[in-house]
Amino acid sequence: MLAQEIKKDIGENIYKCYQCIKCTSGCPTVYAMDLSINQIMRALQLGKDDLALKSKTIWLCTSCWTCATRCPQGIDITSVMDFLRMRAAKMEIRDQQAATIAGFNQIFLDSVRSHGRIFELGMIIKLKMMTRKIFQDLGLGLRMILKGKIPFAPQRVGHMREVRSMFRRIREIEGRKV
Amino acid sequence: MKVGYYPGCTLNSTAEEYNISARKVCASLGIELVEISDWTCCGASAAHAASHLMAVALPLKNLLAYQKLGPDTLVLPCAACYSRFKAAAYLYPAHEEEMEEIFREKYDQALEIRSLLNFLTGEELLRSIKERVKEPLTYLRVVAYYGCLLTRPPRITGEEQYEYPTFMEELIGELGAEPLDWSYKTECCGMSFSLSAPELVIKLCGDILRNAKDVGANVIAVACPLCQANLDTRQREVEKRYQVNLDLPILYFTQLIGLALGMTPAELGLRKHLVPLRV
């Protein structure tokens, strides 16, 4: 059961949740979610892990930390969302909006891996290739380019070897844990 | 006074004017900002959603470099970078062994990690700013927008007034502008969803912008490049979707300080914003 793995992995006890719904009340994006935050907590308590993992909810969470800040039981719900995202990333995401958000996270981290810093223009092009929404935000993008807000080349970072070895060692440690 | 300075990725791109104005203001206050040349990305909201180790390692790589630099305070203008650095320092003890395996060195936890806003609104510097005000911003009615990460989660930021902070309003008042009360100062703007789910950002920024307008603001003050980008670049779409006229310039608090100290809009990069400040 995921609830037990969450306890082991990040130390949060899902069973403390008594459904006061403060998390959901404060959530800025709950209006667009399929399950509310308290329903995710309930699903985990009941061992209905798939409901949580396959929800749009975990991808529509902006990590604003409101739920974790207000939970009267002190459950770090935002970190629970992180845990669920890590698990769900290995599964197929059917909802298009959720898949785009998950894909963009990946594109972001790829940019850090390749350049040490994010390269906005490269990320935007990759996102457009992924979503095939070539024309979305085109006008806005041009206005931002005209304002000099989007550089055409990635920022240069010395010692990229250190960055690569950091990512390699992270992979090694994570590989040992599985 | 010398402090470490970590600008973060966006301050060299979409938020260049935040970098420019922060440097100008600090220089005029006699603060020397020391930056290492090959700092790397903090991982923002993507790393902690993907891997516990990445979430700690990416900021820690920079913390290790800054701890060797000299100054015992590290100042971060970007709220997201600030949040990730604070979180990494908080989570470090639980991952100490793994981090040592990755970096072959220890983090001594001696650096004081502060947001630029919190740093500049400290008692002494705030007084120093007040004494230097040449052109009070009496023409501005300002709502202070903190967003999520400057105050939340309080166990990491150490912020006491995390639901209704007022330290930015104190600064705004000292600059001669009128700070206004409102309901959305710590609500979320949608963060990185700007690119991946813009329709969500338009709704969230719509709520924030309309409340700011309703209470009579003519400027929103921010301390985060993502908040600025979302509120500024999505404003036209918000106006269309909700059939409202907003015309609300989104200024970094450093730009407001600069204006009050007598710097010109051009010097402070005000032309970079999509919604212009008309003075």
TrEMBL record, chain A:
<dbReference type="InterPro" id="IPR009051">
    <property type="entry name" value="Helical_ferredxn"/>
</dbReference>
<keyword id="KW-0479">Metal-binding</keyword>
<dbReference type="GO" id="GO:0005886">
    <property type="term" value="C:plasma membrane"/>
</dbReference>
<keyword id="KW-0408">Iron</keyword>
<dbReference type="InterPro" id="IPR051460">
    <property type="entry name" value="HdrC_iron-sulfur_subunit"/>
</dbReference>
<dbReference type="Pfam" id="PF13534">
    <property type="entry name" value="Fer4_17"/>
</dbReference>
<dbReference type="InterPro" id="IPR017900">
    <property type="entry name" value="4Fe4S_Fe_S_CS"/>
</dbReference>
<keyword id="KW-0411">Iron-sulfur</keyword>
<dbReference type="GO" id="GO:0051536">
    <property type="term" value="F:iron-sulfur cluster binding"/>
</dbReference>
<protein>
    <submittedName>
        <fullName>Heterodisulfide reductase subunit C2</fullName>
    </submittedName>
</protein>
<dbReference type="GO" id="GO:0046872">
    <property type="term" value="F:metal ion binding"/>
</dbReference>
Automatic annotation (TrEMBL), chain B:
<feature type="domain" description="Cysteine-rich">
    <location>
        <begin position="142"/>
        <end position="232"/>
    </location>
</feature>
<feature type="domain" description="Cysteine-rich">
    <location>
        <begin position="3"/>
        <end position="85"/>
    </location>
</feature>
<dbReference type="InterPro" id="IPR051278">
    <property type="entry name" value="HdrB/HdrD_reductase"/>
</dbReference>
<dbReference type="InterPro" id="IPR004017">
    <property type="entry name" value="Cys_rich_dom"/>
</dbReference>
<dbReference type="Pfam" id="PF02754">
    <property type="entry name" value="CCG"/>
</dbReference>
<protein>
    <submittedName>
        <fullName>Heterodisulfide reductase subunit B2</fullName>
    </submittedName>
</protein>
<keyword id="KW-0560">Oxidoreductase</keyword>
<dbReference type="GO" id="GO:0016491">
    <property type="term" value="F:oxidoreductase activity"/>
</dbReference>
